[in-house]
Amino acid sequence: DIQMTQSPSTLSASVGDRVTITCRASQSISSWLAWYQQKPGKAPKLLIYKASSLESGVPSRFSGSGSGTEFTLTISSLQPDDFATYYCQQYNSYLWTFGQGTKVEIK
Amino acid sequence: EVQLVQSGAEVKKPGESLKISCKGSGYSFTSYWIGWVRQMPGKGLEWMGIIYPGDSDTRYSPSFQGQVTISADKSISTAYLQWSSLKASDTAMYYCVRNAGGNSPIDYWGQGTLVTVSS
């Protein structure tokens, strides 16, 4: 199985901060990586697919980059609605795997 | 509008069987994969397996192979996740998800079904 490792596990930030979350794959997954946002009690929501493509309707302050084994999700200016948990997911093969999640908390 | 509507919360005892459902609407049910994702209390997301309702092609995560059964009834646009003998460790939220197949992400999620297994 391809292992996905996210860092940090928790991130404390203020409104307006630039935030970066990293996801590393145990082997190359090309650009087959997605990022999801999950708020408490809700299902996750797709933000970014194919490493850097913004899902329709997602604010442009979210961006993704990377390929191979190293990927990042960046929020350019953190908004109150962005405090949530973020997961990366590889879909290089049908054996999907998720990162363990990064919780973005209010500082 | 694409929707995945899951069955309601369940409370079961260890050893009991269970089948939960996920009804797709607003798209061609037989043209997309339906997957299942587990989220244990306070934990992350785990992919369990997927099914292509068009031909019932089913694939499981090695972690869940033999532990659950995924099926679909394309005549009523519904996918299922079932257990023959529940354990306390099956207590979790279960999400069904839609996927276009090949190298594509999960684009829609159901609202989740909470399964509680307790004696």
TrEMBL record, chain A:
The keyword Cell membrane belongs to this UniProt entry's keyword annotation: yes
Chief site of localization: membrane
Keyword terms of this UniProt record: Adaptive immunity, Cell membrane, Immunity, Immunoglobulin, Immunoglobulin domain, Membrane, Secreted
Stored Gene3D superfamilies: Immunoglobulins
InterPro entries in UniProt: Ig-like_dom, Ig-like_dom_sf, Ig-like_fold, Ig_sub, Ig_V-set, IgV_Light_Chain
Gene Ontology CC terms: extracellular region; immunoglobulin complex; plasma membrane
Cell location: Cell membrane; Secreted
Entry-linked CDD domains: IgV_L_kappa
Ig-like domain mapped to chain residues: 2-89
Pfam families (UniProt xref): V-set
GO BP annotations listed: adaptive immune response
Top-level division of the source organism's lineage: Eukaryota
Annotated protein name in UniProt: IGL c3502_light_IGKV1-5_IGKJ1
Organism lineage: Eukaryota, Metazoa, Chordata, Craniata, Vertebrata
